[in-house]
Design brief:
The protein is an alpha/beta fold and 446 residues long. Helices cover 56% and strands 9% of the residues. The chain has 21 helices and 9 strands. The chain has a 6-stranded parallel sheet with strand order 4-6-7-8-5-9, sandwiched between helices. Strand 7, helix 9 (218-233) and strand 8 (237-242) form a beta-alpha-beta unit. The longest helix is centred in the first third of the chain and has 21 residues, at 46-66. The two termini are 51 Å apart.
Length: 446
């Protein structure tokens, strides 16, 4: 494999994995040889080799094959000279100057001005704004948590940008939990723990993204705990993000959970329709300068805000693809073009309905208790709603008939089959049954 090809693969990996993962884990790799379908890389430590293999191995193999190399597996080795002095190891950096945000690079797009505020994230936004104002520490730490694509990292970057602008004399360190762990392991190996401690305990503001990744890493947790305590005792601000609340992070020590819960813990809820539409409208304003000749038909943004409901990143990515595609083919962005261009995204984003949701909706619709609907009583007032729920479960979930039966009081799959067939017959002759089914289906798809 030529250096030119490996350079192209590296460029593709940076785009696919992001700047943080690339600088921490991919950049230290040194291509050695490709023989018999096995690509060998020199790495500074076994830890890096194992981590890359487990987390990014498939992506590296994919990119190598995509660029014309026949690679079936990867191999990592630690040459003796690498143990003495790693060739491509990212250095442990101290804050170089009083106005530099050290650690992971900040995304210039992620500011408070570009953050769309709605009911699901207004508390998190207000708390982040308060911390970014600087001044006396009022709650420590600020802990932001929520699912993927809800704005945690955006707010973290926005705080760092604002602090840098307002108080350039502050030492602000922003990094991912993986980067904290990597630097800790490197400091241990190189016997530079004093440098590590000095770096992390001399900052004014410490920001750690995705802290759930230190769960189960005992030594890293130990050092994180002591760093946390030292900064809190010194009245330094700590800002943490994770994909779940502190008490729900798996394999995290109880003393760390307790510490993380002693400040302000804020949940970023899943987005609502209005917030998603606001995000899309904001992105369209940005794209207008880039694609001045494109026209977007009425209803397209509303359609996307309704259909892609779980992840803002997916929503923004879908809009980016849509604008790029329409620009390439020179067409107006219509609803039909949107459905064709984003068919895979729309299919993946279809809401997954559960049997339990169906049971709850049906019992509410017919004003009966849930326990009666799934219970043993066979009176008509309960039997017909039960059959309706079975029908909807059969057509709106991927559960098998035996699984559906178990969720209806342990009934046999033949009972479910009978209920489904009965509703099939009734909806063709009974307009009320047909209307009820349509109303329930719409309510469950919202």
């Amino acid at each position: 494999m030529t250096n030119d090809i490996w350079a192209k693969v590296l460029n593709a990996l940076e785009g696919a994995l992001g700047a943080n993962n690339y600088s921490n884990w991919i950049e230290p790799l040194e291509f050695a040889q490709l023989t018999g379908g096995v690509a060998t890389f020199n790495v500074p430590t076994n830890f890096i080799g194992n981590y890359v293999s487990q987390n990014f191995g498939d992506q590296i193999i994919y990119q190598l094959n995509k660029h014309g190399e026949d690679v079936q597996r990867l191999q990592f080795s630690v040459p003796s000279q690498s143990r003495a002095k790693p060739a491509n190891k990212p250095a442990i950096r101290k804050v170089a100057s009083s106005d530099e945000v050290s650690g992971s690079p900040l995304d210039a797009r992620f500011t408070f001005e570009t953050f769309v505020v709605g009911k699901p994230n207004e508390l998190a936004h207000a708390a982040a704004r308060r911390v970014a104002e600087g001044g006396p520490v009022t709650f420590n730490p600020l802990f932001l948590y929520g699912g993927v694509g809800l704005g945690k990292t955006h707010l973290m970057h926005a705080i760092a940008h604002e602090l840098k602008q307002r108080s350039p004399e502050l030492n602000v360190l922003y990094l991912s939990a993986e980067q904290f762990m990597y630097r800790f392991i490197t400091a241990l190996r190189e016997r530079k723990m004093m440098d590590f401690k000095q770096l992390f305990r001399s900052v004014d503001v410490l920001m750690v993204d995705d802290v759930q990744f230190i769960g189960g890493k005992d030594s890293t947790q130990e050092e994180f705990f002591h760093t946390f305590n030292a900064l809190v005792d010194g009245q330094k601000q700590i800002i943490i993000s994770a994909d779940r609340a502190p008490g729900e992070i798996k394999d995290l020590e109880e003393r760390i959970k307790s510490r993380l819960q002693c400040g302000l813990v804020v949940d970023l809820h899943p987005t609502d329709y209005e917030l998603r539409l606001g995000v899309l409208q904001s992105k369209v304003e940005v794209y207008a300068a880039q694609y001045p000749d494109l026209v977007i038909a009425p209803g397209v943004l509303e359609f996307l805000a309704h259909r892609i409901s779980t992840n803002v990143r997916v929503l923004e990515g879908a809009l980016t693809r849509l604008f790029a595609f329409a620009s390439l083919v020179g067409r107006e962005i219509t609803l039909e073009l949107t459905q064709d261009c984003l068919s895979d995204v729309l299919k993946a984003s279809d809401r997954k309905v559960t049997v339990e949701e169906i049971q709850r909706k049906v019992s509410e619709h017919y004003n009966i208790r849930l326990s009666d609907m799934i219970g043993p009583k066979r009176v008509r007032n309960y039997a017909r709603p039960r059959q309706m729920a079975m029908y909807l479960a059969k057509h709106m979930t991927s559960r098998s008939l035996p699984e559906i039966g178990r969720r209806f009081g342990g009934r046999d799959h033949t009972t479910v089959m009978h209920g489904v067939r009965r509703i099939e017959e009734l909806k063709a002759t009974d307009s009320q049954i047909a209307d009820d089914l349509e109303l329930l289906r719409r309510a469950l798809e919202e």
